[in-house]
Each structure stands twice: as C-alpha cells, then as structure tokens.
Amino acid sequence: MADDPSFEIPERPKRQYSRRTVQYDGDVNFTLTPAHDRETDQLEALVIDVLDTGPYRYGEWFDLPMTLFLVHDDQTNDTFRVSIRDGSVTLHVLPKTDSAGLKALYERIVAASNCGWSVDRHVEVA
C-alpha cells in the first residue's frame, strides 16, 4: 500500500569482535508506536503472541530492565533485535538484516493489534 512505511536500511551497523565482547559501530532502528497508548506489558504480550505464531525463533537471554529479544524470521532468513520500552516496540538492525524481515514483523504486529502504528527510523552512522 502507498501509506506503508519504508523499512529501507541506508547503512548497516558494523560488527567488531574483541576477545571478550562484540561491539556494533553505527545504529539503525525502527521504532513502532501504536496510535492508542498501550502499557509496556501489553505490548510485550502482543509481540510474544506474534512471535509465537511464527515463522519466528526468538529468545531473551539478557537480564535487562527492559524486554530485548533476538529474533530470527525463518521465511525471510533475517535476524534482528526487538526491544519493548516506554510504550513502543523497536526493531534493531544487525549487520546482515534486510528490510523484508522488519516489514513482515511490522505487518504482523499491525494485523494482530487492530490499530494504526507510526514508524520512526533512527540512523546513527559510525
């Protein structure tokens, strides 16, 4: 549709490895905000429901003060991070993430929520 947001990735983050850590230089993310305010726990339940219906594999391996999933879309073969915080869902691009996986998750979230969503892209060049 003409009003669909673009999930164009103008520049990918670069991954650097040290002996103990992985560091990303640069950042591209898409923040999805529902038209109707929702509590973070409601958004988390919505996202988990969408991820559980597939075609996703996902996990939350970090003990953080916010929800952060590593998500793999088995249809598009894309991997990216998803965080939920302060009434919004953010899709974080990894070095090999393509737009198709981000757009597919967005469309599934919209379909499952029965409300409009705004999408804001943030790009930080390394």
SSE diagram, text form:
Blueprint: E1 14-17, E2 22-25, E3 27-34, H1 40-52, E4 56-59, E5 67-73, E6 78-85, E7 88-93, H2 99-113, E8 117-124
Antiparallel strand pairs: 1-2, 3-7, 3-8, 4-5, 5-6, 6-7
Helix pairs in contact: 1-2
Write up what this structure looks like.
By secondary structure, the chain is α+β, with helices and mostly antiparallel strands. Helix content is 22%, strand content 39%. The protein is built from two helices and eight strands; from the N terminus they run βββαββββαβ. The protein has helices at residues 40-52, 99-113, and strands at 14-17, 22-25, 27-34, 56-59, 67-73, 78-85, 88-93, 117-124. It has a six-stranded antiparallel sheet with strand order 4-5-6-7-3-8, covered by helices on one side. β4 and β5 (67-73) form a beta hairpin. The longest helix has 15 residues, at 99-113. The mean pLDDT is 90.
**Poorly predicted ranges (pLDDT <50, ≥5 residues)?**
none
Going across the biggest sheet, name each strand in turn. 4-5-6-7-3-8
Mean pLDDT: 90
Estimate percent helicity: 10-25%
SS-based structural class? alpha+beta
The end-to-end span amounts to 33 Å
Major beta-sheet overview: 6 strands, antiparallel
Instruction: Give the helices and strands as they follow along the chain.
Output: EEEHEEEEHE
The tally of helices reads 2
Shape: globular
Radius of gyration: 14 Å
Strand content: 35-45%
User: How many distinct beta strands?
Assistant: 8
